[in-house]
Description:
There is one protein chain. By secondary structure, the protein is mainly β. Helices cover 0% and strands 51% of the residues. The strands form two sheets. Strands 2, 4, 5, 6, 9, 10 and 11 form a seven-stranded mixed beta sheet that branches. A four-stranded antiparallel beta sheet has the order 1-3-8-7, with no helix packed on it. The radius of gyration is 13 Å and the shape is globular.
Amino acid sequence: QVHLVESGGGLVQAGGSLRLSCAASGLTFSQYAMGWFRQAPGKEREFVAAISWSGLSSYYADSVKDRFTISRDNAKNTVALQMNSLNAEDTAVYYCAGRQGRFLKQNADEYDYRGQGTQVTVSS
Length: 124
């Protein structure tokens, strides 16, 4: 059974940083592209970032580009999201997701698995 478990969320002041982590089990992690998505109350789920199975390619939403960095460690079956210069608009539940295959996707429906999420709250 596949499990994706996020951690690292919390409350942070505007301008601060957080590092989210997602631990994967039950799958051949190195064969999966991984993504981060977020959903704020009353809003649609939003793509944040994705990384290829090798870690050599990544893609970001315009709203987080130059502030967030996605990375992965295939030896540890983890994917991380370093978030800097946070602002109130970044407040949301953040989910990691896994998609078997080489292509990066922005549509969450194209991912095979998703975690339960971790709350990020940025106070202004």
